[in-house]
Amino acid sequence: MEIRKISDEIAVSPQIAPSDLKAIHAAGYRSIICNRPDGEAADQPTWQEIESAAKAEGLETRFIPISGGMVGDEDTAAFRTALMELPGPVFAYCRTGTRSTTLWSLAVAGQKDLPEILEATSKAGYDMAGVARRIVNGGKTPTDTGDAKFDVVIVGAGSAGIAVAASLKSRKADLNIAILDPADVHYYQPGWTMVGGGIFEPQTTAKEMGSLIPKGVTWIKSAVAAFEPKDNAVILDGCRVVKYDRLVVCAGLKLDWDKVEGLRETLGRNGVTSNYRYDLAPYTWEMVKSLKEGKAIFTQPPMPIKCPGAPQKALYLSADHWKREGLLPNIDVSFMNAGGVLFGVKEYVPALEQAMQGYNVDVNFGQNLVAVDGAAKKAWFEDGEGNRTEREFDMLHVAPPQCPPDFIKVSPIVDAAGWVDVDQASLRHKEYENIWALGDVANTPNSKTAAAARAQAPVVAENIVDDIAGRSPTAIYNGYGSCPLTVERGKIVLAEFGYGGVVMPTFPKWLVDGTKPTRLAWILKEQILPPVYWKAMLRGREWLAKPEKVSASK
């Protein structure tokens, strides 16, 4: 007998024997549901035998047989009623446990969201992707047949999504393209560091989404619930279905604030802030201006994260302000890094170490933020062995833990870690040849930055157009990413690198030496990159981003 726990309320199992009921009762279960009809196999005990043994143990029982593996809406309703009426926790079984798991998934569809259901059933060993559309539809069989169909469907209207749509249109104007995204506002996220440093106004980093969707591209203002790659379909919230010939996934990543105990409750007050959110970056600058003495802590979570230099950028700009105001001797600045190095590309580390030393920063490696008590002004960090350290603070800048979005993580297009599984050169899915991915959601081993998306978008566009024309994809992505590290107001270490940490400077060294702080790199960040983002990248103008090509025979 196998007890496969789905939640605290229910466990499922393949076929059980009457002799198993004692152990089931001992494990704490109070009710039994049978979802297997009698007579499916010669060696199968009858429901009467199971029921008799269950009642002898004082267990409640319910018989909801599912014939032929077909779970109907009426079966779901009966199972839902049983869950409400029977004392829990409940133990359900059938031949393999799949029918019982399916019934539970559909029965709780109105109470739990799809990712939560898929994750719980997957941990129990059951794949419920096949009934995802019914789950999204509240557990009922969908009847809508008016599904939309497009040449290319793009999931996500962030920097990667709009850029790839614009690049596709610039190459093949007649493509019928849809972008799926529920957001009303599009953000220039690289600007939030500058907002937190008092350089940019927050409103300059935001524009209405509708104003940025490329001409001729359909914007479907809805969230994606699930993927059905074998049927070339995407399921939207509300159970609408969008079909595609080719799919591009660029859904970004999830900021997992809840992974740090007590963090969400104190964000934006008690001195706890983060430049990773539009509404919080101004509070960072408020805290920096108001802090005259005390302890300031800046954190960095385990990789991968969006813009791995951002946690340091917040520190440098804050410390630079305090230094200019003559306050730095009164403020203890600490950098608590869950990783083991200051930066992943060694050529840029000396300049960053010099900056940390110049601000007299207490740099700590292998220290991961796990809990915050904002009211008490305390934070707790753990090392790799689980040893916990308490730190007091007056200001705490948090870079949150980050992971794939929930609806991506439980989809059939991801690797074991939950990122979309693509070839790192072509950005084409390793299993489904009509799917591509780029940006933060892809499992390519590059730095997750806007610069990476700027380089990836033309590669995906070029390869999709090649594919439509019947050619093998010829554009390759070399892993390029850029991280302008604002070591002080007015100077930047312009880190540019590709796969394997290979330094890939855009400009000659005599013009911009990326390994050292320069004024020219600051001008690039402050004055040049924002208009390049809004007026070039998001409009398909591939400034310094023409894709590298290889012959199809390679």
UniProtKB/TrEMBL annotation:
<protein>
    <submittedName>
        <fullName>Bifunctional protein tyrosine phosphatase family protein/NAD(P)/FAD-dependent oxidoreductase</fullName>
    </submittedName>
</protein>
<dbReference type="GO" id="GO:0016787">
    <property type="term" value="F:hydrolase activity"/>
</dbReference>
<dbReference type="GO" id="GO:0070221">
    <property type="term" value="P:sulfide oxidation, using sulfide:quinone oxidoreductase"/>
</dbReference>
<keyword id="KW-0560">Oxidoreductase</keyword>
<feature type="domain" description="FAD/NAD(P)-binding">
    <location>
        <begin position="150"/>
        <end position="263"/>
    </location>
</feature>
<keyword id="KW-0285">Flavoprotein</keyword>
<keyword id="KW-0874">Quinone</keyword>
<dbReference type="InterPro" id="IPR023753">
    <property type="entry name" value="FAD/NAD-binding_dom"/>
</dbReference>
<keyword id="KW-0809">Transit peptide</keyword>
<dbReference type="Pfam" id="PF07992">
    <property type="entry name" value="Pyr_redox_2"/>
</dbReference>
<feature type="domain" description="Beta-lactamase hydrolase-like protein phosphatase-like">
    <location>
        <begin position="3"/>
        <end position="110"/>
    </location>
</feature>
<dbReference type="Pfam" id="PF04273">
    <property type="entry name" value="BLH_phosphatase"/>
</dbReference>
<dbReference type="InterPro" id="IPR005939">
    <property type="entry name" value="BLH_phosphatase-like"/>
</dbReference>
<dbReference type="InterPro" id="IPR015904">
    <property type="entry name" value="Sulphide_quinone_reductase"/>
</dbReference>
<dbReference type="InterPro" id="IPR029021">
    <property type="entry name" value="Prot-tyrosine_phosphatase-like"/>
</dbReference>
<keyword id="KW-0274">FAD</keyword>
<dbReference type="GO" id="GO:0070224">
    <property type="term" value="F:sulfide:quinone oxidoreductase activity"/>
</dbReference>
<dbReference type="InterPro" id="IPR036188">
    <property type="entry name" value="FAD/NAD-bd_sf"/>
</dbReference>
<dbReference type="GO" id="GO:0048038">
    <property type="term" value="F:quinone binding"/>
</dbReference>
<dbReference type="GO" id="GO:0071949">
    <property type="term" value="F:FAD binding"/>
</dbReference>
